[in-house]
Amino acid sequence: MSNPKEIKRRILSTESVIKTTEAMKMISIVELRKTKKSLEKVRNYLDSIKSIFFDLLLIENKKNIEKNQFFSKKGKIKLFIVFTSDRGLCGTFNSLIFSKINSLFKREEKLHNECLFFPIGKKGFDFLCKNKKYNIYDQNWIESNLFYKKVQFLVSELIFNFLKRKFSSIYLIYNHLKKSFLQEVVIEKFLPIDFKNFRKKTLEFSYILEPSQEEIINFIIPKFLNTKLLKIFFESIIAEHTSRMISMHKATENASDLKQDLILNYNKERQTAITKEILEIISGLESLN
């Protein structure tokens, strides 16, 4: 049996763990609420700009769209932008993405030389550095705490390199939160834009365009891509905080159960020590008699 002093020390240590995990859980809840509000605003803006953008594409001649450099694909090099977290203690949030990457490229080993990875988040950067078979586009990683100006700069750089034909296509790998707190790893094409997904829509309004349709489309596309990337970033952040909230809640429950077991053991040891002392006193009195 353990020493009561040692058990008491472990109880105090467990109480400290409970306070820490409970605090981290509350922080994740607050950040989750803020991010959900931001995501709702971005979604509303994206829906509006997407509606205008799709209508312009329907007006445009299909041949002209196929000639547009934002819709065409040339070359072999593919860029994968991986959204991960900077910190751990978020359950399977990062491991799901790493497993998806490993399973995807395990089947297609020949793709390693045709693919580059751009990590957003320190955990993704560490994973790609440890696995030398994955080629990193930039040896500097971007913090997962993005904001609109950073997104604008990142998208402008991606568009510039895409138009220079450094990449044939750009994909986004991120966690999407489904119902019942289930996460799903999504691989979504970012560039080139797939016009086939828009052709089923019917045009609701007629537009008078000035100065020209092509210039307006080229003006809207960066804004559309900025908002789309920002939306996916917020979705990834929501999945991260949800995973961390659930992990910290389970850790708090486990620590509380452990504390109750330790208290029970402490009381047993204390009762055993008291009983032993009483028996020693009684045996001493009997020996005097």
From TrEMBL:
UniProt superkingdom: Bacteria
Record localization: Cell membrane; Membrane
Keyword tags: ATP synthesis, Cell membrane, CF(1), Hydrogen ion transport, Ion transport, Membrane, Transport
InterPro entries, alphabetized: ATP_synth_F1_ATPase_gsu, ATP_synth_F1_gsu
Keyword Zinc-finger: no
Pfam families per record: ATP-synt
Gene Ontology MF terms in the entry: ATP binding; proton-transporting ATP synthase activity, rotational mechanism
CDD domains: F1-ATPase_gamma
Keyword presence, Ion transport: yes
Membrane topology value: Peripheral membrane protein
GO terms (BP aspect): proton motive force-driven plasma membrane ATP synthesis
GO CC terms, sorted: plasma membrane; proton-transporting ATP synthase complex
Family annotation (NCBIfam families): ATPsyn_F1gamma
Binding partners and assembly: F-type ATPases have 2 components, CF(1) - the catalytic core - and CF(0) - the membrane proton channel. CF(1) has five subunits: alpha(3), beta(3), gamma(1), delta(1), epsilon(1). CF(0) has three main subunits: a, b and c.
Similarity remark: Belongs to the ATPase gamma chain family.
Function of the molecule: Produces ATP from ADP in the presence of a proton gradient across the membrane. The gamma chain is believed to be important in regulating ATPase activity and the flow of protons through the CF(0) complex.
Designated name of the protein: ATP synthase gamma chain
Provenance organism: Blattabacterium cuenoti STAT
